[in-house]
């Protein structure tokens, strides 16, 4: 199994001499450890920035209008085209600060302009469930990324993390378990089917 130091070396090699900005994607199912890995890479690597996909969640008001609120987290509850456009801008507008949206877990809402990416950031680490999805505007996302790693972990541990996360941000235990079984499980199956499209499979220890 690859160690974190192995992944650091690979990310540094991908970034090269820093003459051009490089985009590294980390895909994987909900609770697989994508965010933890992306944040650690961005911390450890000079000139790296973390830009999560979660800022492109559609707002609850729009999900209500579309009748998709009960499926929040599914591929069609994100602005995939907007995410792809941001990735292209991050690559092309490397001489100015680019502001990306963030996601507020307590509110469960996207926050515009929450993540500043400085011109000095030469490696952008972005992570999300659907980076390797081969349908709709998600195909544009993959086209903007230099490399995509698929992140996975023990399935029981992944589910335990998801339930704990939902409880941490306001759901009761029964509600959290039901949401994971109904919505998160289906999304995880979609993501798992994209595993072979990744450039590297990263096994995150429990």
CA-CA gap between termini: 13 Å
**CATH architectural group:** 3-Layer(aba) Sandwich
CATH superfamily: P-loop containing nucleotide triphosphate hydrolases
Number of domains: 1
The main pleated sheet reads as: 5 strands, parallel
Q: Give me the number of helical elements.
A: 7
Provide the helix percentage: 40-55%
And the CATH topology?
Rossmann fold
CATH class: Alpha Beta
Summarize model confidence as the mean pLDDT.
Answer: 91
Poorly predicted regions: none
The global form is: globular
Account of the 3D structure:
The protein has about 210 residues and is α/β, with parallel strands linked by helices. It has a single domain (about 5-205), classed as P-loop containing nucleotide triphosphate hydrolases (Rossmann fold, 3-Layer(aba) Sandwich), CATH 3.40.50. The protein has 7 helices and 7 strands; from the N terminus they run αβαβααβββαβααβ. It has helices at about 5-15, 35-45, 60-65, 80-90, 140-145, 155-170, 175-190, and strands at about 20-30, 50, 100-105, 110-115, 125-130, 145-150, 200-205. It has a 5-stranded parallel sheet with strand order 2-5-1-6-7. β3 and β4 form a beta hairpin. α6 (about 155-170) packs across α7. The longest helix has 20 residues, at about 175-190. The chain is globular. The chain starts with a helix and ends with a strand. The model has no long low-confidence stretch (mean pLDDT about 90).
């Amino acid at each position: 199994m690859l160690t974190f130091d192995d992944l650091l070396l690979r990310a540094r090699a991908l970034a090269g001499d820093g003459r051009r900005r490089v985009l590294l994607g980390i895909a994987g199912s909900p609770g697989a450890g994508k965010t933890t890995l992306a944040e650690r890479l961005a911390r450890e690597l000079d000139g790296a920035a973390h830009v999560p996909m979660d800022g492109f969640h559609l707002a609850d008001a729009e999900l209500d209008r579309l009748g998709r609120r009960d499926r929040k987290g599914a591929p069609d509850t994100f602005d995939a085209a907007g995410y792809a456009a941001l990735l292209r801008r991050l690559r092309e507008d490397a001489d100015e600060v680019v502001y990306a949206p963030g996601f507020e877990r307590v509110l469960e809402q996207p926050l515009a302009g929450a993540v500043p990416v400085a011109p000095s950031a030469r490696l952008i680490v972005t992570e999300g469930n659907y980076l390797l999805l081969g349908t709709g505007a998600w195909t544009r996302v993959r086209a903007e990324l230099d490399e995509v790693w698929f992140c996975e972990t023990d399935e029981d541990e992944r589910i335990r993390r998801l339930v704990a996360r939902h409880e941490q941000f306001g759901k009761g235990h029964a509600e959290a378990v039901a949401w994971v079984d109904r919505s998160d499980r289906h999304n995880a199956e979609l993501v798992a089917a994209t595993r072979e499209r990744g450039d590297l499979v990263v096994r995150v220890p429990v």
